[in-house]
Amino acid sequence: MTDPIHNHQSDERTYTLVRGQAPLLVSVPHSGVDIPQDVLLQLTESAQGSVDTDWFMRELYLPITTELSASLISPVYSRYVIDLNRPESGESLYPGQTTTGLFPSERFDGESLYREKGEPSEAERCRRLETYWRPYHQTLQAELERLVATYGVALLWEGHSIRSAVPRLFEGRLPDLNLGTNMGASCDPSIEQSLRQRLSSVNKYSSVVNGRFRGGYITRHYGQPQRRIHAVQLELSQATYLRDETEPVWDASYTQDISAVISSLMSASLDAALGLATNGG
After folding, report:
1. Cβ distance 53 to 113 under 8 Å?
2. CATH number, residue 166
3. Domain total of the chain
4. What are the pLDDT digits (tens) for 158-188?
5. Assessment of whether the complete model's pTM goes beyond 0.85
């Protein structure tokens, strides 16, 4: 792989891109943990730890992308600054269900993120959109187009994670592996079928396809099979790779089993995508 490629916006590095040599791009848009000092001062003390982060997604996926020669894009900043997996219009992805927006104002548990009168002004929202959201998406779009031009197909893998139980967002305990293809609209049927077949052989972890998490904005927006860009989202229960979800600590040895499953799923979907390119699909 090449060295990481950094983007600079207003003298701030907002994301990291590591390019591989396969038509597979992994995006982990909720893995950032940094919060600029001016934003941090407006947050409540309980929100300053960015507790709703998709913990260690970059650490989890980097060895897998290296193994598969895939590319990996990851943000520097927390979803509390701006949510990269929401449309810039702020439109809800799950109408009628509790969710968080482009500029989150509450934690997953419903507690306020901001101190009194601390929520961002319209000017500040525009600044964050231009500084953090737009560069990530411009690069995402450019990379997918580059992959299609180079390989004849592009596969976008959206890597996410969440605590296994978040009563405000979903009932009960979340399945371990939650695959989303926007109800089949974000990828060719052969890719979803390859994932379902691979899941059927996974015994250690529970799974569902297009359940509570069907794919966020990035999966839905960029997954355009007619343009040879296919997108899949995997929402992991954090119980699959963290010893303690309430005190997230990275332990590579604890992730070996789930890493092998993720690698297998990604390999299956990549093979299916390459088959489409070979057949002109």
Report:
1. no
2. 3.40.630.40
3. 1
4. 999 999 989 888 889 999 999 999 999 999 9
5. yes
